[in-house]
């Protein structure tokens, strides 16, 4: 979904020229060749700071989060006496903290600059990660997971809000995909890291290998937490980032204004009422709930492999990284496909939606090792649904930053809320492992509902655009009538005047 080009006055005539074939190719590959040097320089600088902070920060956050699964299958279960149900509660307690922190964090961000609040939460997160290495029992782990969830709650929503405040629609989709792909890289790296630590560090200085994993993750995350204080630019209207010149900030404001984006304002009851009575809040929330729930099988990939009793601890940590690799490649591919087809978000979303449904059917039936393995890998290929969905939400709510923030925050919160309890009920490892036939059968239906929501959002958005066009035509009609009357009157006066001035014979 593209908007008007941002150009300097001197380049206005150049921008009106038709795009060359190479420029059209550049539009698909990255941001396009039809832009000014000023805009190229600004976007390049934004990428260097915003994207590096967001992507590395997300990688570190999810590395610290994913290592719980690797630690569980690498000795933590036995050392701390976990029961079958406790594995599900690891995720549940994390999400409880995440939900508790979501609303207060959004309120804090209306009063405190993101460049202060977000890196402070990251710094505290790093400290808590070190604390996992000293956990003495299951209750310690649960308590730390709640705190960790609370501290992560502002990050993803904050990143999406910042990206939506600086990038245009044609720039946004690829960058959200790159940001989100960090979760696959983190899960893969966590598997490799745990496999290496288990072989080389297990028992070193009297500490188990899984405890060393948390120490290493804390060491990795600490410096990137401090980097956030420098890299986060807030939004163009209140920016104090030293790496942007005043002229670049001014140009960034003009870019956002060209797409109808205005400065954020404090929420009022009238604004809240409007958001609550507008369809995007409910449609995107439902879509993300179905997405979050339907992508849970990949989290149980290692549990299934361990239950087969045919792989070593090293292999159980290593094999699931194939699913993360598939997710990494397909997530990036979906965003490029979406932009290649003129920002066709709904058409692109059908691809991971259908892939997920096929994968869910395979893991639910479980016809054999090979088919079940393919089902888990296909589930990884469906995780790219999320970035395209949020790019779509950013575009539909582009003219209203408050609605955009609420839609993203609420949908993310409810998506995580359902993940907190649904797996505990239908994917209880103490009852249904390793096949989870009943749970995966239910998730097949959830995956089908995910496809339905793509159509629902498309239908509502099309109806709203039609209504906007009708309103615009209605507003322009009186102006056209007045212009016609004025033109006729002027033409008539001219004729009268011309006639009166003719010489008499």
TrEMBL record:
Q: Where is the composition biased (Polar residues)?
A: 496-505
Which UniProt keywords are given for this protein, alphabetically ordered? Membrane, Transmembrane, Transmembrane helix, Transport
Return the Basic and acidic residues bias intervals: 469-486
Instruction: Fetch the InterPro entries from UniProt.
Output: MFS, MFS_dom, MFS_trans_sf
**Membrane topology value:** Multi-pass membrane protein
Tell me where in or outside the cell this protein is found. Membrane
Record-level Gene Ontology MF annotations: transmembrane transporter activity
Give TM regions: 89-109, 116-135, 141-164, 176-198, 210-232, 279-298, 318-337, 349-370, 376-393, 405-426, 438-460
Its principal location? Answer: membrane
Positions of the Major facilitator superfamily (MFS) profile domain: 50-465
- Region entry Disordered: which residue ranges? 469-505
Q: Which Pfam families match?
A: MFS_1 (PF07690)
A cellular-component GO term for this protein:
membrane
Return the PANTHER family for the record: MAJOR FACILITATOR SUPERFAMILY (MFS) PROFILE DOMAIN-CONTAINING PROTEIN, PERMEASE-RELATED
The family assignment reads:
Belongs to the major facilitator superfamily. Allantoate permease family.
- Protein name per its UniProtKB record: Major facilitator superfamily (MFS) profile domain-containing protein
């Amino acid at each position: 979904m593209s908007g008007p080009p941002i150009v300097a006055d001197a380049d206005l005539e150049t921008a009106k020229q038709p795009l060359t074939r190479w420029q059209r190719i550049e539009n698909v590959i990255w941001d396009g060749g039809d832009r000014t040097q000023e805009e190229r320089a600004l976007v390049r600088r934004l990428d260097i700071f915003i994207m590096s902070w967001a992507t590395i920060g997300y990688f570190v956050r999810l590395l610290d989060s994913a290592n719980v699964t690797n630690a569980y299958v690498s000795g933590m279960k036995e050392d701390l006496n976990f029961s079958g149900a406790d594995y599900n509660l690891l995720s549940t307690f994390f999400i409880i903290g995440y939900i508790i922190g979501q609303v207060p964090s959004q309120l804090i961000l209306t009063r405190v600059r993101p460049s202060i609040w977000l890196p402070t939460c990251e710094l505290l997160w790093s400290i808590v990660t070190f604390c996992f290495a000293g956990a003495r029992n299951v209750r310690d782990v649960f308590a730390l997971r709640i705190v960790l969830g609370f501290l992560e709650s502002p990050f993803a929503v904050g990143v999406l809000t910042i990206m939506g405040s600086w990038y245009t629609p044609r720039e946004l989709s690829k960058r959200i995909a790159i940001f989100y792909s960090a979760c696959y890289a983190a899960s893969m790296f966590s598997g490799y890291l745990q496999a290496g630590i288990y072989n080389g560090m297990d028992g070193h200085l009297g500490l188990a290998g899984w405890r060393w994993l948390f120490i290493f993750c804390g060491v990795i995350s600490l410096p990137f937490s401090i980097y956030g204080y420098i890299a986060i630019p807030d939004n163009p209207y209140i920016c104090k980032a030293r790496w942007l010149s005043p002229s670049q900030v001014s140009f960034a404001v003009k870019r956002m204004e060209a797409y109808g984006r205005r400065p954020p304002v404090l929420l009022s009851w009238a604004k809240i009422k409007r958001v609550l009575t507008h369809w995007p809040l409910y449609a995107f929330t439902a879509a993300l709930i179905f997405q979050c729930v339907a992508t849970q099988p990949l989290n149980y990939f290692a549990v299934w492999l361990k239950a087969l009793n045919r792989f070593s601890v090293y292999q159980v940590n290593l094999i699931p990284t194939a699913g993360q690799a598939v997710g990494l490649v397909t997530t990036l591919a979906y965003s490029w496909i979406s932009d290649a087809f003129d920002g066709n978000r709904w058409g692109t979303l059908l691809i991971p939606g259908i892939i997920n449904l096929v994968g869910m059917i395979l893991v639910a039936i479980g016809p054999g090792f090979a088919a079940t393995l393919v089902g888990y890998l296909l589930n990884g290929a469906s995780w790219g649904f999320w970035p395209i969905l949020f790019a779509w939400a950013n575009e539909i709510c582009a003219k209203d930053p408050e609605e955009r923030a609420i839609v993203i925050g609420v949908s993310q919160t409810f998506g995580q809320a359902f993940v907190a309890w649904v797996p505990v009920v239908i994917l209880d490892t103490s009852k249904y492992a390793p096949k989870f036939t009943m749970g995966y059968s239910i998730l097949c239906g959830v995956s089908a509902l995910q496809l339905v929501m793509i159509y629902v959002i498309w239908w509502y958005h099309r109806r709203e655009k039609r209504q906007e066009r009708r309103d615009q035509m209605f507003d322009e009609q009186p102006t056209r009538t007045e212009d016609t009357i004025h033109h006729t009157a002027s033409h008539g006066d001219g004729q009268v005047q011309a006639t009166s001035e003719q010489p008499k014979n």
